[in-house]
Write a structure and sequence with these properties.
Length: about 500
Amino acid sequence: MPADIPATAAPTAADEAPHPRFAVGVLAFCGVVVAVMQTIVVPLLPHIPALTGATPAAASWLVTVTLLTGAVFTPVLGRVGDMYGKRRVLVASLVVLVVGSVLCAISSHIGVLITGRALQGAALAVVPLGISILRDELPPARVLSAVALMSSTLGIGAAVGLPVAALVVEHFDWHTMFWVSGAIGVLDIVLVLCFVPESSLRTRGRFDAVGALGLSGVLVCLLLAVTQGADWGWTSVRTVGLLVLAVVVAPIWGRYELRVPTPMVDLRVSARPSVLLTHAAALLIGFAFYANSLVTAQMVQEPKETGYGLGASLVVSGLCLLPGGVMMVALSPVSARISAKHGPKVSLLLASGVIAAGYVVRYFTSHSLWLIVAGATVVASGTAIAYSALPALVMRGVPVSETAAANGLNTLMRSIGQALCSATVAAVLTGLTFRVGDRTAPTLHAYQLVFLVAAGAALAALLVTLFLPGRRVPAAGTVEGNRDVPGGPGNGARKVPTQESA
């Protein structure tokens, strides 16, 4: 199969941003905003049936549809960005986010809300697109730290989104948070247009529309079955049928991708051990991290009559995750320094061990609010290091021309891990229950079992990481070997990497 060869087109005046030195902060802010959108409705879900007249099953789609559209559009828009302009596609993604926010802000109809949430989920592609822009435009010495921060925004936004949404739900009309998210989205667009340059690096070829449709079909079937299996029944016709369809379509799609000149996903590159194992580690880290977000707020809100619950308010439960968000901001540059000195493989090994240790702390400290916060913060700290290391590992193994698509696929693997985690947590917490007065609550053992499963996922990520190739001599076209050349970043031209150089 012919390799993708990026075209080096001279940037136009319209594409150039006047102050690219601010690009890191602007793109990180965009990433946080997009990540917040993924969790902003979680505190609202129990109230949606009363507010909209919808059933609880319909209300759950406000989260499910965001996961689906994020999973589908992240790798697709990453590929489109590589081919037609990363900033251009990033701005389009933010426009879609604003439209989705406005739809949710002006309506209480569940169908309109689900449509708006679907549009918000599509904006998750901002993160891999931002990573690719930073790789293209920054001097090599700044790439690792900037990419580490950009990748960590997925965790930072999740940690910030829950307490902010809880405050809005308790003190304001619930539509307010969508108006605010829409306004911030508009601000993001203005900042990107003012301070983020358009990369002149392009991937030549025709967009693989058939491959995009095939990938989307596989993902929708798989994620629908995983996220709705508990409600539909794991042995129901719908669940089993979707899983079978995903299994049947996947190899047909893969065979097609191996034959087209410019595939949606370059499976030959993705099959390299350095890339394949990194994607596997991303799935496991996504699983391990998401358990922390799912159970912390619910656990501290459980009534004291359970024997372990603290009876905390919605706002207090959300604030339990905020120290973890702060640690993620603080640790992203630390992870970059570790990766620069010892390699991103060492960073990911360390991160996996820290996450597992955090869940061990959580297993034994389920009765004290401050110890629960401490354990959740340890897990978040490990996640920060992992999320910072993953894109560095991806970029080490793929050509520069595929940076956005490859990081989009890595972000997708984290999303799949989160979907699997959500299904697992729901099964455990609904399967191990006892009566508390007139209601049913999960047992303490159910929460502890979730912690053990999440710790196991982190240890599995550590094992996978051990098999990653170690440090090697930097090659042109990789994050380690992409050095300034005459006419490099800031001078209007780039070295043209080849498939072999990566």
